Amino acid sequence: MSLQNDPFLNLSNSIFNSYIKEWQDSNKKVVGYYCTYIPEELLHAAKLLPFRIRATGNESTELGDIYMVRFTCSFVRASLDLALKGGFDFFDGYLICNSCDHSRRMYELFHLKVFNREGFKKKIPRFYISVPHVITKAGFLWFKQEIEELKEKIEKNFNIKKITNEDLKESIKIHNENRKLLRDIHELRIQTVPKITGSEALQISMANSSIPKDIANQELKRILKVLNDSEGNKTNQKRIMLVGSIMDNTSFTELIENAGALIVSDFLCFGTRNFLDDINVNGDPLESISKRLYYRMSCPRMMDDHEKRLNFLKSEINRAKIDGVILQRINNCDLHGCDNMLFEHELKDLDIPVFNIDRESFQADTNRLQTRIEAFLEMVK
Amino acid sequence: MSERVIPYNILLEIISNTYELVWRIVPDPEFSVLKEGLKTMEVSLTSGIQKAEEGLPVIGHHFSFPSEFLSCFDAVPICIEGTSYLLSALLPDGCEKYYDLINNWGHPYHTCSSQKGPMGMVLDDLFEFDVIATPTAPCDNTFASYPFFAYKNIPLVITDVPFIHKEKSYIYLAEQLKSDLYKIGEVIGQKPDFDKLKIALNLENQILNYELELFELRKAVPCPVESMINPIVSGIKIFSSGRPEKLAFFKTILNLAKKRYKNKELPPGMKEEKFRSVWPYMTIFFDINLCEWLDRELGMSVLIDIFNYNFEEPIDTSSEDKMFYGMAKKAMNYPMIKESTEFFDTFIENFINVSRDFQADCAIFTSHLGCKQFGSIPQILREALRDELGIPMLIIDVDVGDKRFNSIKIIKDKIKMFTNTLL
């Protein structure tokens, strides 16, 4: 492996970076968002930089705890905490959807407590889309209309004359290429001699969501070349698939990989869920964007799609020759907690070693986690 | 006894016994709301169990898929959440055994106890549902927990509730409600009878007038209705909707309240109304006796809670389209669903108005472990009540259906200490 201290991967260690500065110095705007159900391509077509909200490096939730009760998710609390400290003051807007009960309330809290706090002068427009919780034809039509309305609101709020179909098609092209590059890297991860660790893959994904996509594509091509030229990991480590709640830092993946395993695949937001499906380049571009988002590989917020998620796990376990699956959830994440509960029973029925654990978003309770992970890895044949 | 609805049989037995005990021992007018509530739910449960014995299909439903919507079928409606919490209210250890069963099966401890009960009961083969109907609201627990029933091979009919209140939301939901009733019908082999549904909805429209009148009377100083009305109405709404006994309940309670209001009488057992509290969220279900304690020991009226302040418009039943549109609007404005499917500004504004109208001098927010959708609200509401009305709000972390999270003693102590600061 030769990605240690790679400047692109290092972007994942901080929130603000030089590319964002350069972007804003040329009078362009940045829009923050939480969830993979938002149309990045539409924002890009509007010449906005979509920045995926995370709280990497912030291990405190003191300020966030004032406004969110203790049985909410520590990832969202940490990101609110960071926002209250001014960590997202560089935003020129933010877009929230009803992905989960924790993050969707940031639509109100960011407005009330972050961007209207005393002394903060910039006006930050906010946007919201309501995503159905089931996958049906009527649901798609609803979602498509939400995206169309969002387009109008973006045009109005950012004084854009019109986001044209050509703008959208160009954006789709760049984003499809981005997903293809991430998939190519993923292929190097799941092969018999993996060329990348799980922690590195996570860093790539986080960095990728923090900078303009055309630059990200150049960087991903460079990384692909580095990886192709590398020898890969020839050791006989246990091959793990990591599933569940969002991860915005490598402390948990490092805990697993330092215990003698390699995370060769995942089912995470900053991971495979983000790049599996492409947008059809033919037809109405806005409809194609909506279609990809709505019908793509879901997360547990989609109530009627557990079987599809399970099928992906089964296929990936087979394809990546997985020795064991680690299911994890951030404490108080009901969505992943319950999805993992079903996965645990379903995978055990298939005689796949599986381990289900809860954790905090930032590194906490390390000894307990380490002991349990090591015990699981010992069990895995 | 029907083996398909064992927990309902248990519930009926406890309700009947408790009613008999309260009715025989406690002289009128003491515990009038409790007595009337138990009587009403006894009638509804008896009817359900009789139908189960006749072999009619058992339809499980989420509390926010109102049971009157299911009156278009000859079936036994079983409310998932209601079962958990009514058992919690009436049995010393409530549903704890079943919470533990499902937790041991892998269900996260931080999910909602209202669903854990029947999930554990399904693991223990105590329920045999033919189908379960649920909306995708109000919370993550609903999206997350209900797929368990599908895993257990129970057909699940899911109605998508949009997370935004707009005209298009009602139209979207109305279409689904109609098609989902047909889907339920397909599973149980019945065609929905919309004439029967219309009768139930018209009855609900009638009940609404009584509810609104009672709501106005509860603003009086002193409040003429005992605090127990809050959890009891939650139960009645869940178990007796669209049924004549619900109408009878509200008629009786309204008359009682009118009489007390006219005579400036306090609820029985309350010596003085020292504190007028509003509860923006729920009261405690695992020990509804808390309400009596508040009345009698603290002199604190619980003027209103989330199940008691929120009213939908009457449903226009003049045509099928209007009826479903009205049902959708009702479903989206149902207690807890309304607050969960829109931005929290409306909830806060509404509660400031309610607190002002009811001349409340304090608020108590039970921050329920399962309700992540409300996890960002208490502090904002506390600040708003303080800034707008100058009234303080106590926030208590609880599981409203499980005493092991925070015991009733701790809750009472907190409230007592809070009231000391109000004097």
Describe the sheet with the most strands of chain A.
4 strands, parallel
Give me the Rg of chain B, rounded. 20 Å
Average pLDDT across residues of chain A? 96
Oligomerization status of the protein chains = heterodimer
Query: How many beta-strand runs of chain A?
Result: 8
Main sheet of chain B? Answer: 4 strands, parallel
- Class of secondary structure makeup of chain A: alpha/beta
- How many helices of chain B? 17
Overall CATH class of one domain in chain B: Alpha Beta
Tally of separate domains of chain A: 2
Q: Which key phrases capture this entry?
A:
heterodimer, A: 381 residues, alpha/beta, Rossmann fold, 2 domains, four-stranded parallel sheet, 16 helices, 8 strands, 48% helix, B: 423 residues, 17 helices, globular
Structural notes for this entry:
The complex is a heterodimer of chains A (381) and B (423). Chain A has 381 residues and is of the alpha/beta class. Chain A has 2 domains: 10-163, Rossmann fold, CATH 3.40.50.11890; 166-379, Rossmann fold, CATH 3.40.50. Chain A is built from 16 helices and 8 strands. In chain A, the strands form 2 sheets. Chain A has a 4-stranded parallel beta sheet with strand order 2-1-3-4, sandwiched between helices. A 4-stranded parallel beta sheet of chain A has the order 6-5-7-8, with helices on both faces. In chain A, α5 (74-84) runs parallel beside α7. Chain B is globular. Chain B is of the alpha/beta class and 423 residues long. Chain B has a 4-stranded parallel beta sheet. Chain B has a domain at 6-195: 3-Layer(aba) Sandwich (Rossmann fold), CATH 3.40.50. Chains A and B meet through α6, α7, α8 and α15 of A and α6, α7, α8 and α16 of B.
